[in-house]
Amino acid sequence: MIPKYNKIHNRFKYNNGHYPHNKLNELAYGLIKEGTNYEKEIGDFILDWQDDNAFLLAKTSGSTGIPKTIKLSKQAMVNSAIATGDFFNLRPGNTSLLSLPASYIAGKMMLVRAFILGLELDVIEPKKSLNINTNKNYNFAAMVPMQLQSNMEKLNTIEQLIVGGAPVSKVLKTKIQHVNTKIYETYGMTETVSHIAVKQINGQAKSETFKLLPNVSISQDERGCLVIKAPNVASETIITNDIIAIENENRFKWLGRFDNVINTGGIKVFPEQIENVLKDYINTRFFIASETDEELGQRIVLVLEGHEIVDTSVFKILKPFEKPKKTYTIPQFEETTSGKIQRKKTLEKLK
């Protein structure tokens, strides 16, 4: 039987303290009154979760447009938590670590999973270098790629780690291959109440394709973009701008964003695929974009963060139509709070 959102599991703990349903608001008030900013955000979320409304508000990341606030069903969040628990075999009394802000869906869902699945949740400040208790073992945790990069030496205390909010670079994937922690890249969005698919990115079971969570089905529209049906977490069909290749009914490969696709001389080019090739050869953050060209329609350009100059000889590993025709540098990229590069806003700074 699926629990309702107003039921808190009797094994739930917050920083070693036991908080049943009738005590959870006391925790929230304490966090709001005496806590730091990130703890106040947790307190606010707990009060929202405990109120009589069946919905709550959540902010989208704004990685591809203006951030917006949307309404989420609390029961859909419960359903998502159960699906994640089933996929990762999480059980009551398992330990979990919250190192993400509760102002966004990833942090909110770590709390909901603990409420519903009966997890013992440790909460630390959501910053780049994390104060993880390396003397304690955690069954489950979540990070953004920037945190994964900055806390490699602390990962052995974590059994299973999900990483989302931004793509995991090829260089970072190489670094984590010999880590004992099972690390999974996630695919999802606020509208799908966190992830609807995951793929292991290290160890013998690593994969190039995302595997769907239970009760999720996918298809493609006429653009080749992913269409999601996940009735347990989203009441409507979700049409994305993510171009994919479907392997089978349970797996797909992410190719790039439709809104980033470049048509150069009649050939469609995915910037993300070029970036994946170049990541081993460029030591600073960068992305591939385009600008108007009279002959080609669009020509490919390379945008670098900082003042480093790239030796154009590295472009020889690319196909002729993939090679950047010009390179731009900018002191600092525009980005979201989760570390995603905001390409359009960054390009506007070049004008």
Q: In order across it, which strands form the biggest sheet?
A: 2-1-6-5-7-8-9-10-11-15-14-13-12
Secondary-structure element sequence?
EEHHEEHEHEEHEHEEEEEEEEEHEEEH
Mean pLDDT level: 91
Helix run count: 8
Structural class, from helix and strand content?
alpha/beta
Helix content: 10-25%
Percent of residues in beta strands? 25-35%
Major sheet size, sense and barrel closure: 13 strands, mixed
Low confidence ranges: none
Large-scale geometry? globular
The overall strand count is: 20
Task: Measure the end-to-end span.
Answer: 57 Å
Q: What is the radius of gyration computed over CA atoms, rounded to a whole number of angstroms?
A: 21 Å
Structural description of this entry:
This protein is of the alpha/beta class and about 350 residues long. The protein is about 25% helix and about 30% strand. The protein contains eight helices and 20 strands. The strands form four sheets. A 13-stranded mixed beta sheet has the order 2-1-6-5-7-8-9-10-11-15-14-13-12. Strand 13 and strand 14 form a beta hairpin. Helix 1 runs antiparallel to helix 2. It starts with 12 loop residues before the first strand and ends with a helix.
Provide key terms for this protein:
single chain, about 350 residues, alpha/beta, 13-stranded mixed beta sheet, 3-stranded mixed beta sheet, 8 helices, 20 strands, about 25% helix, globular
Give a quick rundown of the structure.
By secondary structure, this protein is α/β, with parallel strands linked by helices. It has helices at 21-34, 37-50, 74-87, 105-117, 145-150, 170-175, 271-278, 343-348; strands at 13-14, 17-18, 55-59, 69-73, 95-98, 120-123, 138-143, 158-163, 182-189, 194-200, 210-212, 217-220, 225-229, 238-248, 251-257, 262-264, 267-269, 286-293, 297-305, 326-330. The chain is globular and about 70 Å long.
